[in-house]
Amino acid sequence: xxxxxxxxIFDKQLRAKVKAKRDAIYDLLQGRLPDHKLTLIxxxxxxxxxxxxxxxxxxxxxxxxxxxxWQFIECQxxxxxxxxxxxxxxxxxxTSNPKDVVNKLIKLI
Length: 109
Hints:
- This protein is α+β, with helices and mostly antiparallel strands.
- The protein has helices spanning 12-32, 98-108, and strands at residues 37-41, 45-53, 56-64, 69-78, 84-93.
- 29% of the residues lie in helices and 39% in strands.
- The chain is globular.
């Protein structure tokens, strides 16, 4: 797995709300990213993986942090030394419409 959710959501009620939104986002992404492997992780993350080349795998994730904010995470592992990692806030939280989250995420992917 790309990441273990370091900012795990401890509040059970918030986690349940986030999971419902995450699942709705996942359903929307399946239609928008048919060539990507989507994996649900925990209650608050969707890992999005695809091969860039024979020697490189780019992994991205949509993750909701412990404050309920959605963030985009990306890393690339290459057989050489061009590995990187970064995260970007979507400036949306778990109360946001899943379509808005998907639209912002698609722009970053």
